[in-house]
Amino acid sequence: MQAGAIFGGVHHHASTVNYPVPRQLPPAPRHFVNRVEQLRTLETARTAGATLVAITGLVGAGKTGLATHWLHRQDTYADGHLYADLSTLTGSTAAQTVLSGWLRALGLPTPSDDVHELAGLWRSATCNRAVAVLLDDATSAAQIRLLRPGGTASLAVVTSRTPLDDLDLDAPERIQVGRLGPAAARELLGRFAGTTRIMADPKAAAEIAEACVHLPLPLVLAGARLGARPERSLRSAADALTYPAGARSHPEDRVRMAITTALTATYNSLDADAQRLYRCLGLLPTADVDPDMVAAAAATEWATAERLLEVLADEQLLEPLAAHAARPVRYRMAAAVREHACGLAEHDPEHDRKNVRRRVCDWMLLVATHAQFRLTPAQATLRRSIDGPPRQIPLPFDDDTGALAWLDSHQHNLLGTLRAAETAAWFDTAWRMTDAFFPLFQFHHPYTLWAAAHQIGLSAARSATNPAAQRQMLASGAIGLAAAGRVHDAIDWYTGMLEAARADADTRDEGQAHHGLGGCQLEAGRPHEAEAHLALAVARWEQCGYQRGVGLALIRLGECALATGTPHEALSRLDQACTLLLDIQECYEAARASALHGHTQVLLGRSANGIAEMESALETITVAGSILWQARTLKLLAEAHQAAGDRVRALRRYQRSADLYDRIRPAEADSIRRLIEEL
């Protein structure tokens, strides 16, 4: 039917739909831990009127969890919470899809499919609204710019696996979400597995957290698995996750898959140079790395190594470590990260992988050799006769203090490097490196490392069929065993050295073996047997003109005289030792003789002279860096002050001695503290 003339207005009444205020955020995580600093930053940004926040970090680090945890607790954005998972939207229509959905959520029509027109309408619609939008898993600034709300009352929170450097023009507030700390990781694990189980086996819990790289996602999966299996021990779970290097997890292991997914996503976002360095680091046998080491291992410039290490640290693939006096910049690669990097490196040519390890071993040996030649040149005699002086390279130290600090900073890297050299059949490298670290052993006394390194060094010297190197390893290894109180083991090593020296007619090494055996007999409380060996040491060393050895034997003979109650004889022997050692400029060894000489003067009633001599000797010993002889001299000084009735000075010296003994001989420290209590 067609209407005729119509008078008045024509009205079309569209149906009215009351849209609810959009609340599209994913649920907040039920088990949220830590992130105090990041939450504080978010609050500060909101208070300051920020309109863009970028939260970046590894896959599984909890970026989305942080964002949703915080946004759910905000009432500032009364006009809505909007959400877009950008990882599921690709191609040219991604922004169009998101904008259309958001506009509909606000009850607005979408009159066009043109993305720029939709973006303009979106900004207009939010100009006077207060909304918060969460853009999850963004990969570029271009994705984000079209989706930002208009006006200043709204906020866009972006999460991304990449740093989004191209977003700097938009001046975002940046928040880095790293791995959880050890305590927070255990807490999260306990939320699922049960706090009681975590407390019952904290060591296994810590190993699980480490295997999960302290990332929330794999921790939640591991905790949920334990929660579903209350009969399973934490130890078995830890063992399943911390299998030996080189082993591979079952492909259906969800925890390991989560870790691998996170690391692979981050690796894929790196440029080619950073990827190559990441694979290189997975091959290194060291506990930590620094620019000097990495420049050598990767055969690159120092500045390049420093820059790429910073890149990997920014991506949470490396953990910055506290600065060491000799190495202000150090990083650690978690075991699971190292395994991932090593797995990727398996696709590189075999000779490239071998060269990485070869270069780092050669570099460690060369720098340690420079330290040895500087700190203990007399002990480096064998190395000098075989190799001559080490070739010159840029060194990370320029004085004795720096050289000893460098060796100390690498003591946790030594065994791994030695084992890598031994495995690769670089036997000369292995025993030479053990030998080069002798100044660390002599002055800082890491007894367990000392013994373990020399086991490898001795085995390598035997494999290299080098008799002189074998005797060197037996001698320096036995010194460590004796110093650690393992006198019977030390006697076995010195006896082996004596037999080898006699077989090779090596007079100097024969004297060294007798000197060591004399020291062991003295430590075992048999001073007369000790004197017999020491007399033979003096005879052999005088025969071959080794004056330093004669001086060292005289020190031991002086100690024997003290042990047998003949202080005048001790004074004479120690005086000879001091004079001889000073004549050949062995100042540290002469100071050891002087400390005992001063102690003997105190025993003979010359307290003032004895104390003054010991104080002077202590200064030289302290500069040399020997912890053992500092502690020993301080104890002798304390005894002298106590005998003189000076309680205050005695207490002070005893305390300093105990503090030093804590580092190398805790039982001795406890003994001294009992003396302090009696005072």
From TrEMBL:
InterPro entries: P-loop_NTPase, TPR-like_helical_dom_sf
Record SUPFAM superfamilies: P-loop containing nucleoside triphosphate hydrolases, TPR-like
Regions that span the bilayer: none
Entry-linked Pfam families: TPR_12
Superkingdom per UniProt: Bacteria
Name of the protein in its database record: NB-ARC domain-containing protein
